[in-house]
Design brief:
Blueprint (H helix, E strand, L loop, with lengths): L9 H4 L28 E5 L1 H4 L24 H9 L4 E3 L38 E5 L2 H14 L1 H12 L8 H18 L8 E6 L9 H13 L7 E5 L2 H7 L15 H19 L2
Parallel strand pairs: 1-2, 1-3, 3-4, 4-5
Length: 282
């Protein structure tokens, strides 16, 4: 039995307005929540890789027509959580941190779904040891596609903007600013926590998952240069070799729509786990 909250659907991925609804709960008879080691608690923030989009699909199959291929239980986040006995998830397929996709900051404080009438979560009732974030490929992939259509000059201009510290319109500078804003939003939500959670970044998503790595590290460094009291960000990633292996087209590590299968998610989780344990002292 799981208690994870997943905000994920094909409509949300396309910028629509519908959410994944809970229609049925099944159990193997284990109705009580398993005991955790030392009460460990992790909160995950992410996109389709964290929501489990196409994780049950076949490498050459589609997945946009139905949600039957989606399973958050087999994702890198949930496999990692079970490995250290901790769990909680907020994820939206197709979203990111900038308006190039759809900022997940819009729904971070919601109990479920989106909209002004959605009840807000009381962050004092459950404080994680760490907030683990894998997000950004959707923002960076759009930037890359725009550059490919418009020519190298667009990318070159964006790189100059970043070097100059610019934050407007389409360059990686806007991503750095928005990603840091997400970190600040999380820190604000847990500002009254007796022990502030650590903010742990993961770079290693599917398809173009390594594209945001440099920008995430930049955002994290800028956050750590002047962090809210008690907060600090940490960076983790998968090796280039392992990432290339699990992103090879048609392999057992891929589900549908070029996203990870359960096996691909496992490789990512196994790569991140020792890094997380070192950060947490577990």
């Amino acid at each position: 039995m799981t208690e994870d909250l997943e905000l994920s659907s094909a409509d949300l991925a396309a910028g629509g307005g519908s959410e994944l609804h809970l229609h049925e709960v099944t159990s193997d008879g284990m109705l009580q929540r398993p005991a955790t080691q030392g009460g460990r608690k992790l909160e995950f923030i992410g996109d389709s890789d964290t929501a489990g989009w196409c994780s049950l699909g076949k490498p050459h199959g589609g997945g946009d027509g139905a949600l039957k291929h989606e399973d958050a239980y087999v994702t890198w986040a949930q496999q990692l959580a079970r490995g250290v006995n901790a769990s909680d998830t907020v994820a939206v397929s197709g979203w990111g941190v900038t308006t190039d996709s759809t900022p997940i900051q819009k729904v971070f404080r919601n109990t479920f779904g989106q909209g002004s009438s959605v009840p807000r979560w009381n962050f004092s009732t459950w404080v994680p040891d760490a907030v683990v974030i894998l997000i950004g490929p959707n923002d960076e992939s759009l930037r890359r596609r725009i550059g490919e259509r418009a020519g190298a000059a667009v990318i070159e201009a964006a790189e100059k903007d970043e070097a100059a510290g610019a934050v407007a319109g389409g360059g990686s500078g806007s991503f750095v600013k928005a990603y840091r804003a997400l970190m600040t939003e999380v820190a604000s939500a847990y500002a009254d926590a007796p022990t502030p959670p650590k903010l742990v970044h993961v770079c290693g998503g599917s398809i173009n998952g390594l594209d945001p790595c440099d920008d995430i590290q930049t955002a994290n460094q800028r956050f750590n240069d002047d962090p809210p009291k008690g907060f600090r960000g940490y960076y983790t990633t998968i090796s280039q070799k392992s990432w290339q292996m699990i992103n090879k087209a048609g392999s057992k590590y891929k589900g549908c729509d070029a996203h990870y299968s359960a096996l691909g998610h496992k490789v990512l989780a196994d790569a991140i786990r020792p890094q997380l344990e070192a950060i947490m002292g577990w």
